[in-house]
């Protein structure tokens, strides 16, 4: 999950989910994730969108690259 600036809401969260062979219907899974977050998280902590990706981007030390995730979120937000 990464946070992006938003013109009206100040900051919003974007969730990235790694898909696998058992992912199934992404639309149904996206709705289930958002519904679960709505039940469990405060409104300001809930992701605005859920995006499915094949793998988390890795940095130089094979750790998840938050910078690359933020860049991906920015590109998706622009679409």
What report would you give on this structure?
The protein is an alpha+beta fold and 79 residues long. The protein is 35% helix and 27% strand. The chain contains two helices and three strands; from the N terminus they run ββαβα. It has helices at 26-40, 66-78, and strands at residues 2-6, 10-18, 47-53. A three-stranded mixed sheet has the order 1-2-3. α1 links the parallel β2 (10-18) and β3. The longest helix has 15 residues, at 26-40. It is globular. It starts with a strand and ends with a helix.
Q: What is the number of helices?
A: 2
Order of strands in the sheet with most strands: 1-2-3
Strand runs, count: 3
Largest sheet: 3 strands, mixed
CA radius of gyration? 13 Å
Oligomer: single chain
Please write out the topology.
Elements: E1 2-6, E2 10-18, H1 26-40, E3 47-53, H2 66-78
Parallel strand pairs: 2-3
Antiparallel strand pairs: 1-2
């Amino acid at each position: 999950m990464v946070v992006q600036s938003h013109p009206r809401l100040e900051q919003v969260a974007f969730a990235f989910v790694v898909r696998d062979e058992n992912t199934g219907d992404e639309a149904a899974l996206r709705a289930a994730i958002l519904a679960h977050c709505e039940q469990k998280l405060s409104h300001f902590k809930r992701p605005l969108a859920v995006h499915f990706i094949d793998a988390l981007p890795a940095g130089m030390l094979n750790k998840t690259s938050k910078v690359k995730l933020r860049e991906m979120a920015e590109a998706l937000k622009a679409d």
